[in-house]
């Protein structure tokens, strides 16, 4: 088997809503799956003779939930999610890549701080993973969860969230925003907006403004509004974290184009102790050329969004056509995305 691949067995399937299910796994070799709260698994799904890669966030939290789990909502036009929900059964084996993703806490804070979790729809999934981790590891953190969902019936993890809200009443506060069907006669139909978010954040902040952390996951327009509002309020990029579920950067990549330089660059890949030497034209992305030459690199979206292909450039320069996941600080530390990365110097060394 490819060393990048992991075999899992489905141990349990839980129906969360009519179109959303949680799948719990164990590894074939009985070794624990090492992951961080907020990360995701990329599944290799074979359908009609073609291999597809789909990434789904952990809803479980390491050290808290006994088994790793992902939660999957059926997409209206999502052939793969429909296939999974129809066909996966307890006992089935599935193939995944190593856990990945940068939608994570750096480390538990030693000082009290505010953490805001802003989610819409299935965007609650990685936030639920983070929420449990924070409650378990940061007893002094003040957490505000704002959860936008169409209706009570489509609210994923509602009962679990209510239990946590009662158990951690002094630490956790949850606001549900129902957009199409209210919970009861006293519930207003509302959508999160900049005019709602700004006063909400100012009202809920307890501790140092510079220590606050924000995690945002939902549809693109939802995240754009939230992040622009928070930036306008003066919060720094390092305080803002986003997770993209919708990956459609092809039009943007087409507009950006690729470098005009066609000269050959010498790229050295260091992967799990092995070293590969490649000659890559300056106008070809590193991931695509490595795969074409039979070198297995991790990837999922191929669009500069998910971060599965993140590597570190230790020598030379890499130009990224699109980057929706790495911060400026991470780029300064040498992190690059191989899927949208092009060798921009004569010699480049990349470590995975």
UniProtKB/TrEMBL annotation:
Superkingdom, natural source: Bacteria
Domain (2Fe-2S ferredoxin-type): residue spans on this chain: 265-352
Keyword Iron: yes
Residue intervals of the FAD-binding FR-type domain: 3-106
Any one GO molecular-function label of the UniProt entry: flavin adenine dinucleotide binding
Keyword Cell division: no
Protein name: 2Fe-2S iron-sulfur cluster binding domain-containing protein
Organism, scientific name: Chitinophaga tropicalis
